[in-house]
Design goal:
Elements (H helix, E strand, L loop, with lengths): L1 E11 L3 E4 H7 L4 H8 L3 E4 L6 H16 L6 E7 L26 E4 L5 H14 L8 E9 L17 E12 L4 E5 L6 E2 L2 E2 L2 E3 L11 E3 L1 H22 L9 E4 L4 H11 L10 H4 L6 H11 L8 E8 L3 E9 L1
Parallel strand pairs: 1-15, 4-5, 4-6, 13-14
Antiparallel strand pairs: 1-7, 2-3, 6-7, 8-15, 9-10, 11-12, 14-15
Bound molecules: coenzyme A.
Coenzyme A binds next to helix 2 and helix 5.
Length: 326
């Protein structure tokens, strides 16, 4: 079985830090309420000259430069996102020229919302495992979001949670145990801001009415605490591993309370769960990539570490996979 080996990571965060106190100046909320309900203290928002595409490019460039891999060895460029600069062209395709990457390889975006990391990594793995281009055994996989542009300033249930940022990995394959668990359940039909789902974003209509993320927070919470333990258990068991074999559990950073709930319900050691939601907020498809990059920067990842990635999000979707650090 071909498993995923992460070779290097990259990180790009926008320049503006928005604290809970900043939000409290413009809407009825307060630092204590937000921290208690979500564990979030601050998040980053893009400022002048910053955008999803630029953040993705910066993170991918950083991961690529650190990898020691030549551009001729890159066989695939993927981006997990729901908030690129354009519906088309894709964020991934816009990296070809600035990174001087080969023209004869696929460039594509994947939209699985906050499950984006596991979806993108699994599809990159499957593509590389098909071995269509043996000279190009590496993929650059990036997660980016610029959710600040999709937040309704008058909706305090969403604008306290989401943030912007990008993370990237260069990955390849190695022999080893591997499994992924990906899925969706569209029957969770809660009418939420137009689309029938508990988190949704409508495409702008012909009148160019702004399009905002809508969310039924309680329903999403209930879904998350049900699906994350399932995802984690399924993936670990399908890979022939035990929980003790996992060095780090890296969950989508939606809400500290959700992660705490998973730790308690599964009786797993809290110190094996990396959490950065306090200073990054929820960056949807970027969040697990940002965790990986921060962990590498902090020296928390060691050669041969086994990492369990798990996310959930709009769709409602879920995704988890097990990967190894170089
Ligand atoms: N600041 C202060 N008060 C707020 C508030 C805010 N930002 N947002 C809502 N409130 C108020 C509500 O108006 C309500 O007041 P009321 O009791 O007088 O009616 C009260 O706080 C409770 O609101 P409720 O919506 O029931 O809060 P909650 O405990 O469900 O917390 C979330 C809201 C969004 C923090 C929580 O549901 C959550 O985290 N859900 C998961 C969301 C998530 O993870 N999304 C990402 C998925 S990828």
């Amino acid at each position: 079985m071909y498993s995923v080996k992460i070779i290097s990571t990259g990180l790009a965060l926008p320049s503006r830090t928005i604290t809970n106190d900043d939000l409290a100046k413009v809407e009825e909320t307060d630092d204590a309420w937000i921290r208690k309900r979500t564990g979030i203290g601050e998040r980053r928002f893009t400022g002048d000259g910053e955008s999803a595409n630029q953040l993705a490019l910066d993170a991918a460039r950083s991961a690529f430069e650190k990898s020691g891999v030549s551009k001729e060895q890159i066989g695939l460029v993927m981006v997990a996102t729901l908030s690129g600069n354009y519906s088309t062209p894709s964020v991934a395709s816009q990296m070809q020229e600035p990174l001087s990457l080969p023209k004869d390889i696929p460039y594509l975006d994947v939209n699985a919302a906050c499950s984006g990391a596991a979806y993108a990594i699994e599809f990159a793995r499957s593509y590389l495992a098909a071995n269509l281009n043996p000279q190009k055994p590496y993929a650059i996989v990036t997660g980016v979001e610029e959710l600040s542009k999709l937040l309704d300033p008058s909706d305090r249930t969403t604008n306290i949670i989401f943030g912007d940022g990008a993370g990237a990995v260069v990955m390849t394959l190695e022999e080893g145990s591997y499994a992924s668990t990906l899925g969706a359940e569209s029957s969770l039909a809660i009418n939420c801001g137009g689309a029938k789902n508990s988190i949704s974003l409508n495409t702008p209509d012909a009148s160019h009415t702004p399009s905002y993320i809508r969310m039924d927070g309680k329903e999403v919470f209930r879904f998350a605490v049900r699906i994350l333990p399932y995802c984690i258990s399924e993936t670990v068991s399908k890979a022939g591993l035990t929980f003790e074999d996992i060095d780090w559990f890296i969950c989508h950073q939606a809400n500290k309370r959700i992660i705490d709930h998973v730790v308690r319900a599964m009786k797993l050691p809290k110190e094996k769960f990396y959490c950065n939601v306090d200073h990054i907020g929820n960056t949807s498809g970027a969040s697990i990539f940002i965790c990986l990059a921060e962990m590498e920067e902090q020296g928390l990842l060691h050669s041969g570490d086994t990492l369990l990635l798990a996310g959930f999000g709009s769709g409602l979707t879920w995704g988890s996979c097990v990967v190894r650090y170089r």
